[in-house]
Design a protein that fits this description.
The protein is of the alpha/beta class and about 400 residues long. It is about 35% helix and about 15% strand. Helix 3 links the parallel strand 5 and strand 6.
Length: about 400
């Protein structure tokens, strides 16, 4: 955890008002509850004229990002007024952007909506994002996505974003598969039992398998798939089968399913010390280190900023009607390709031009270049969704948030 930087404003202190945890698998006198009470007793807040900065915790998203999300989704939120939304995967990059933007839009538009957030460790979530956990519209539900107890009320909207993406999770492929498949099935049973109208699964572009060399941008109707006998493909295969389960439930329920095949992203809340290249590059630049590429830097990626990600997902969830057959499939990402070497160079140019980019290997003439770039024309044509924040601006905003 980092210490927040001074804002230059006068400030006063006070205790954070944190919400009650709704316990699905433990009792009220459990260790979890004791830990939560401890958090409530020690979480102190420094209030500024701009926002609330919580000592020892991450920052809020920038006001310009939240207002940008509201600007592009304002007309959609009436559909959620007074409704219940259920979200799994609250502690990840997606969950952080969705929850903070939901809370902001709820306040700005006086929507009176309620969001129930599933977390295995609500205490850890509250330490990381106390400004979200203390929102009146947010209710934490303790439990594992594979077996949590169903809340009694109905939920018109469900977002299933729980998915282990860390290198540690990838090293345990059986556990990873269990979380993806058993978790998705439990979430589907929950949605079916609680009158859900629309269910959004954050899937992955990994379901397409390796992108062919002759395909510059991979479309939703590409029929490829992962190498299913490769243990390293457990995540991709888990997402692919999760999509199939949604397709089967669509045939026997009245639920509208959205399969959001997500590619690569950048922005606040992206871990800088994990296996995300752009996060590692930003961390190096902020620390004044030269960027060392382990390969030749030729793989091709594309990056969508977190604010645009939130806009896209809220649009898919809340739009009055969706095109095509149920389930509705959309690629989510940027269609602007960039090599890893050029990405590192862009980070250096934006954050510290005195640094150098060095590759461990020289590119091989005529060699294979790995690509992972979506065709997002369908989302543009059918929903009017497009990238509104460019890569270099996204790099600058991410770095500013982490400074």
């Amino acid at each position: 955890m980092r210490t927040p930087r001074s804002s230059g404003h006068d400030s006063g202190g006070g205790k954070v008002s944190l919400p009650k945890i709704y316990l699905s698998t433990v009792t009220e006198d459990s260790t979890l509850t004791r830990r939560w009470n401890l958090i409530c007793s020690v979480a102190y807040v420094i209030r500024t004229t701009q926002c609330t900065v919580y000592a020892g915790c991450v920052k809020q998203l920038a006001a310009e990002d939240l207002s940008h999300i509201l600007k592009h989704t304002r007309g959609l939120w009436e559909k959620a007024r007074g409704r219940n939304i259920f979200l799994s995967g609250a502690t990840g990059f997606f969950g952080a952007w969705l929850l903070e933007s939901l809370a902001y839009c709820n306040r700005e538009l006086s929507l009176g909506l309620s969001a129930t957030v599933l977390s295995r460790d609500p205490g850890a979530f509250a330490r990381r994002m106390p400004h979200v956990a203390s929102e009146p519209c947010i209710r934490m539900l303790q439990g594992d996505v594979r077996d949590f107890g169903f809340p009694a009320e109905e939920f018109e909207f469900v977002i299933h974003a729980a998915a282990p993406t860390s290198a540690a999770a990838a090293s345990r492929p059986l556990e990873l598969l269990s979380t993806l498949l058993d978790g998705t099935k439990h979430m589907l049973e929950f949605a079916k039992a609680r009158g859900t109208k629309r269910f959004l699964l954050t899937s992955s572009g990994a379901v397409y398998g390796r992108q062919p060399q002759n395909l510059s941008h991979i479309p939703e109707d590409y029929p490829g798939g992962p190498e299913w006998l490769d243990p390293n493909a457990a995540y991709a295969e888990g997402k692919r089968v999760s999509e199939q389960m949604c397709s089967l439930y669509a045939r026997e329920s009245q639920i509208d399913f959205i399969l959001a095949r997500c590619f690569t992203f950048v922005g606040p809340h992206l871990p800088l010390n994990q296996h995300f290249a752009i996060g590692n590059f930003i961390a190096d630049a902020l620390a004044g280190r030269n960027i060392a590429l382990r390969g030749d830097g030729t793989p091709i990626r594309s990056y969508l900023y977190g604010a645009d990600l939130a806009i896209w997902l809220w649009t898919m969830l809340l739009r009055e009607s969706l095109p095509g057959a149920n389930p509705h499939v959309f690629n989510v990402g940027s269609g602007e390709p960039i090599s890893i070497r050029d990405l590192a160079q862009a980070v250096v140019e934006e954050l510290d031009p005195s640094l150098e980019v060095k590759a461990a290997e020289a590119p091989i003439a005529g060699g294979t270049r790995l690509r992972y770039v979506p065709d997002v024309s369908y989302a543009d044509d059918s929903l009017g969704l497009r990238q509104s924040i460019g890569l270099r601006e996204a790099i600058r905003r991410t770095a500013a948030w982490y400074r």
